Amino acid sequence: MVVTLGRRLVETQFARGNHSEAIHLCEDMCYNLRRVWGALDATTLEMHVLLSSFYTSVQNYRKAMLVHEDVLRDTVSDKGEEIPQAEACAIALHHLELLKRAYQRLGGWDKDSQVYVDLYQQLAHVFGGEEAWKKGSSQIQSVEKWQPKGADGLGVWARPESFEFISTANSRKHANFLRKLTGTWSLHGHFHGHRLSRSFSSRSISTQ
């Protein structure tokens, strides 16, 4: 719940034009999630994709590229320890797609091209036996064949249709709690020194 609120907070900041503040907070959230829940945790990955989309929206394609490069290295080094190999393969394919778009938007590589060739070869070595890789890699192609142009909308941040943070059917308890809040309420979430601190303020909070 706290992470979902944090995501809504940074998206609200970004939507209001406070790009630097939103990106800084999102970076801190990614750092904390990576350390606490692991690099390949689903929520950690979602926040990294969000961070990359923020970078993309402000045309910082180099940092967007680095996000996906790091995730790809995480999938290679996991070796089935954190998540099943098939899941790691699916993650790798998705972030290869996002890396390709960042490369196309930048118009070239951020580092020497051999760095990315070697990374792709490592991915192919680790996941080459997976069915998903056999199907997906043929569509993505090896990095030597990528052209530095033609990026579509994949990886670009889109303003959410709704900023609600209660999205599951079993969240009635939380919804009822929020309805009982009287007056105004605010949420302030900050990551100081890579530690999470929270403060809620309202005129009256009832848990009954």
Task: Explain the layout of strands and helices.
Blueprint: H1 2-15, H2 19-37, H3 42-57, H4 61-78, H5 85-106, H6 113-127, H7 131-140, H8 172-179, E1 182-192, E2 195-204
Antiparallel strand pairs: 1-2
Roughly what percent helix? 55-70%
Read across the widest sheet, the strand sequence of neighbours is 1-2
- Tally of DSSP helical segments: 8
Structural class: mainly alpha
Q: Write down the CATH class of the largest domain.
A: Mainly Alpha
Shape: globular
H/E element sequence: HHHHHHHHEE
Major sheet summary line: 2 strands, antiparallel
Number of strands: 2
Q: Based on the coordinates given, report the CATH architecture of the largest domain.
A: Alpha Horseshoe
On the 0-100 scale, what is the average pLDDT? 81
Alpha carbon gyration radius: 19 Å
Strand content: 5-15%
The number of domains is 2
CATH superfamily of the largest domain: Tetratricopeptide repeat domain
Terminal-residue CA separation: 20 Å
Topology-level CATH name of the largest domain: Serine Threonine Protein Phosphatase 5, Tetratricopeptide repeat
Low-confidence stretches: 169-208
Explain this structure to me?
- The protein is mainly alpha-helical and 208 residues long.
- The chain folds into two domains: 2-145, Alpha Horseshoe (Serine Threonine Protein Phosphatase 5, Tetratricopeptide repeat); 172-204, no CATH class.
- Helices cover 59% and strands 10% of the residues.
- A two-stranded antiparallel ribbon has the order 1-2.
- Strand 1 (182-192) and strand 2 (195-204) form a beta hairpin.
- Helix 3 packs antiparallel against helix 4.
- It is globular, with a radius of gyration of 19 Å.
- The two termini are 20 Å apart.
- 28% of the residues are buried.
- Residues 169-208 have low confidence and may be disordered.
